[in-house]
Backbone:
């Protein structure tokens, strides 16, 4: 039995002809733009952007082949974009006109995605009947159900080959590459154990580490399950204002900084710094909590010098309207921390987009990456229906937005449930994965950011941060 199905270029054209509505036209041709307008000023599905941001292209999803876009990774002139049905490989050698190379059907949320040479690692965090890409949903209470990491050979991007599955406790919500000379180590983040889940037992204060030998990736296996929170971590609760904050039962996401042999973990109720000098035995060396404004520690990003960490808070789980005056500027925001030479974190300020969204629009901080610049700390970041924000945190205490791109309320579903999941800067352009609208290509034209386009990379996993050779 074939483990998965690839929908190639010819098949995409056939689907379009059969009425599946595949389009490869610039979104500006079909959606009127409002330059200088944003948030509550926008009509349903209308594009709003700052003057210094261009929307170059959009490739819509083909429902139900690649619905619900998620994370992105990059190798050479290709972008690999996860979605709840599998992943899509795009040729982005001409960023203003990307082309689909293949669409792999392999259902299983969230399909968080990482690349290492010719190997692609895909996270499955929903119980499936088996390891194949033809699996069906299966109860988490059933011992035979499967969740974990899938490994593909993508040396031929038009015909990826599924080569291995590795089961991990509580599945794999996200995965992070920690490279070494002979092996890839995959840090698998997962959470929310329950006593009636046979493969996800409480307290689950750990991560799974999968080793993938480069010479023999089919021998990949779990080699460690370190307990990061022997004291149980944040117990969760409500603060004096009545706002809830999450208990720690695992990590949501980890960002490695291999050059300094450290990693930052966003672990539900805790933000941590880990020593990863021994990649199979990470040690938590610093922990911070914010029970006043953070609800759920979601992800982390270092600045290029490794002297700051941005932690994001996914207030409302990404499904609620939190970018408004009622919620305010500090809840559902980024937390900016300075990181000392001895890896101690000091809180400096919050950053939240200043563009208030409609009550129907889900909006909160989500995935982003650095824009590589010498002497400045600038980031591009997704905010679901709040769109893509370009912001400067060079002054840790006074962050500011310097550009944006967003869409008005999602007219297709009458409001929330949409928006951009990931926005990453790669070789001069920004690539964005929108849950409902597909794959967007943006360009920021701010003259002060021009030098960033000189930084060229062969590969980028945003959760395995490189040291950018800025100019």
Residues:
């Amino acid at each position: 039995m074939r483990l998965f199905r690839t929908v190639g270029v010819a098949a995409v054209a056939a689907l379009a002809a059969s009425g599946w509505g595949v389009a490869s036209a610039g979104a500006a041709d079909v959606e009127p733009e409002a330059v200088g307008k944003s948030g509550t000023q926008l009509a349903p599905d209308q594009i709003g952007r700052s003057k210094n941001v261009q929307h170059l292209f959009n490739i819509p999803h083909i429902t139900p082949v690649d619905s619900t876009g998620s994370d992105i990774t990059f190798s050479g002139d290709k972008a690999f974009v996860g979605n709840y049905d599998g992943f899509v490989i795009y040729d982005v050698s001409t960023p203003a006109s990307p082309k689909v190379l293949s669409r792999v059907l392999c259902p299983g949320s969230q399909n968080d995605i990482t690349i290492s040479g010719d190997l692609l690692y895909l996270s499955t965090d929903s119980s499936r009947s088996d390891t194949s890409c033809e699996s069906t949903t299966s109860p988490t209470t059933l011992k035979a159900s499967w969740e974990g990491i899938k490994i593909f050979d993508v040396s031929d991007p038009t015909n990826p080959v599924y080569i291995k599955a590795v089961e991990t406790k509580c599945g794999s919500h996200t995965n992070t590459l920690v490279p070494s000379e002979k092996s890839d180590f995959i840090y698998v983040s997962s959470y929310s154990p329950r006593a009636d889940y046979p493969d996800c037992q409480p307290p689950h204060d750990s991560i799974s580490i999968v080793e993938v030998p480069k010479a023999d990736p089919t021998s990949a296996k779990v080699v460690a399950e370190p307990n990061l929170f022997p004291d149980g971590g944040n117990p969760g609760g409500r603060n004096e204002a009545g706002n809830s904050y999450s208990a720690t039962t695992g990590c949501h996401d980890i960002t490695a900084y291999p050059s300094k042999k450290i990693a930052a973990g966003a672990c539900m109720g805790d933000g941590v710094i880990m020593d990863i000098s021994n990649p199979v035995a990470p040690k938590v060396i610093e922990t911070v909590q914010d029970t006043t404004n953070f609800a759920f520690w979601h992800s982390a990003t270092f600045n290029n010098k490794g002297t700051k960490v941005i932690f994001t808070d996914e207030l409302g789980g990404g499904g609620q309207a939190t970018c408004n005056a009622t919620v305010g500027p500090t809840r559902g925001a980024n937390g900016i921390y300075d990181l000392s030479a001895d890896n101690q974190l000091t809180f400096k300020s919050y950053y939240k987009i200043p563009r208030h969204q409609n009550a129907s629009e889900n909006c909160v901080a989500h995935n982003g990456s650095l824009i590589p610049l010498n002497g400045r700390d600038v980031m591009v970041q997704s905010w679901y229906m709040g769109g893509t924000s370009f912001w400067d945190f060079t002054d840790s205490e006074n962050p500011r937005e310097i550009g944006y791109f967003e869409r008005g309320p999602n007219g297709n579903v009458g409001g929330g449930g949409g928006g951009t999941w990931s926005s990453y800067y790669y070789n001069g352009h920004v690539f964005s994965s929108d849950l409902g609208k597909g794959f967007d290509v943006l360009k920021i034209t701010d003259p002060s950011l021009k030098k960033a386009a000189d930084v060229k990379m062969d590969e980028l996993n945003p959760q395995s941060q490189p040291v950018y050779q800025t100019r």
Remarks:
- The chain is about 5% helix and 40% strand.
- The chain has a mean pLDDT of 92.
- The first helix runs from residue 9 to 20.
